[in-house]
Amino acid sequence: MNSKLKKTLKFILIGLGVLVFVLYIVFRFFMDMKMSDAKIEEYFSKEQVKPSFHFYETEGHQMFYTDIGDTTKPTIVFVHGSPGSWDAFAAYFKDPDLLQHFRMISMDRTGYGKSSPGKPESSLWLQSALIKPILDQIPDSIPTLIVGHSFGGPIAYRMAMDYPDQVDALLILAGLADPEHESRPFFLYPLRSKWLRWLLPPDMDASNREILPLKQELYKMEDDNMWEKITANTIIIQGNKDILVSMEHADYAEKMMVNAPVEVIRMPEENHFIPWTQFDLVKENIFKLYEKIH
Prior knowledge:
By secondary structure, the chain is α/β, with parallel strands linked by helices. 40% of the residues lie in helices and 17% in strands. The chain has one domain (31-293): 3-Layer(aba) Sandwich (Rossmann fold), CATH 3.40.50.1820. The longest helix has 28 residues, at 3-30.
């Protein structure tokens, strides 16, 4: 091996090492949104209505979810992104207007939090199936709204495709949809290897393993004409300054959902973090969908 090639390989290895270190720091200290059990207890300590916590098993996975509110009221099911956890939507659990009108459910998706840690799933069909037991506990007479953020978006779409009789409305926040505009940096692929995965924080590892195959999963939904199966009333909120999910994803979903009423709210100055930066807007559109399905 000549010296020039050795230097090039050394440069690549050093660069990869620095990149892994930076990603580790970012995910470990700045993108870990999970609250500990003690912090959750403290967060709801002054609330008259507190969430309850549950486990169930399905498809070889142990799933964890929280719920709050009257089980006879219309139900909101929140689906977090990648990475994430149920408490990404904890603030909504404390909102008095939402509590007055809805039962709310939020789960740790598989691979995150208390749902089969270290066991993420790349199949959108299976991600949808893992949430199906939650839908099954909701009586047919009670309207159900799915709110999906980021990677939770395609899972919400898939749930509406697979279980159209159980999903009455969708609220998609910066949700992925278009396979042509779904791409990930090349350096993430080696980090999916079992030889390098141990370098990553658990949530980053789970995210990497589930999201890299997403492009092909989205193509499957397109090739199988799954979009035509969605009949749920749908609102999509998408920011034009979102560096993780481009506006084309909202445009694509609007085009593909030929059998569902769809409204797209395009926000020129908004980023990816709509559930937190646009709480009032999200709440407003939850009630807008409520009026359509109630």
